[in-house]
Amino acid sequence: MAGHSKWANIQHRKGRQDAKKAKFFTKAAKDIILAAKAGGGNPDDNSTLRLAIQKAKAVNLPKDKIDNAIKKGTGELAGGDLAEVMYEGYGPGGVAMLVEVATDNKNRTVAEIRHAFTKHGGNMAENGAVSYMFNRKGVIVFNGEKYTEDELMEAGLEAGADDIVEDGETFIVYTEPADFMAVQQAFADAGMEYESAEFNQVPENLVPVDAAVGKKVMNLFDALEDNDDTQNVYMNADLPDDLFDEED
């Protein structure tokens, strides 16, 4: 299997931004707070919280911080006054973008997000103008050198996986949100280790851009990711491989 993985390239860029900002812990804790606030503090009854805890453990968030984040979400401790907001906009080349934030001050955050869009050649859009181009999915990523597509299909499809897509050196398994935990468990039961597992806003179609526009798109992407309140940025850009080659 050869070639680049556009998904992996974007995730690498996101990871590099997170490391630069030391945001791993903050993002993980906010995810837990929001999940506990929405569905309660028992991960056995709250699949979103269970996933948030898994991701927090993956970035080595200490247990006491995990416990405190749950208590903030349930109101047992102060500090859980966060709102989850999805902002929509367009980047250079007409690329659609969603910005998922967790904030304690919506006025501050929306002003900062709008400034980032404007500064980098984009513009914010009304609610619903962009979000219809994306679908919320469970996304489980495997190293394509460790497993074959047939092996993944055998373990995942019966548990509810929607689709398995080869992307460069990875396989990406998509699920409906309601089936995500069952599919994840099916792979675990089969002894199959994944690279990552998370909920994602998956674009229905990709917009091809050339390297020049791609650089502008990624500058905007970085600026949005760099905001302290940003949890995730999603977009439908189909970026050229050589854009990432230049960064290696």
TrEMBL record:
Q: Which residues form the TACO1/YebC-like second and third domain?
A: 83-237
Domain named TACO1/YebC-like N-terminal: residues: 5-76
Q: Which InterPro entries would you find in this protein's record?
A: Integrase-like_N, TACO1_YebC-like_2nd/3rd_dom, TACO1_YebC_N, Transcrip_reg_TACO1-like, Transcrip_reg_TACO1-like_dom3, YebC-like
Q: Write down a Pfam family by its short name.
A: Transcrip_reg
* One BP term from GO: regulation of DNA-templated transcription
Q: Which UniProt keywords apply?
A: Cytoplasm, DNA-binding, Transcription, Transcription regulation
Can you tell which superkingdom this protein's organism belongs to? Bacteria
Main localisation: cytoplasm
Region described as Disordered: 1-20
An example Gene Ontology molecular-function term: DNA binding
Q: Where in the cell is it found?
A: Cytoplasm
Where does the secretion signal sit in this chain? none
Q: Which GO terms describe its cellular component?
A: cytosol
Family membership, please give it.
Answer: Belongs to the TACO1 family.
Q: Tell me what this protein is called.
A: Probable transcriptional regulatory protein BerOc1_00571
Originating species: Pseudodesulfovibrio hydrargyri
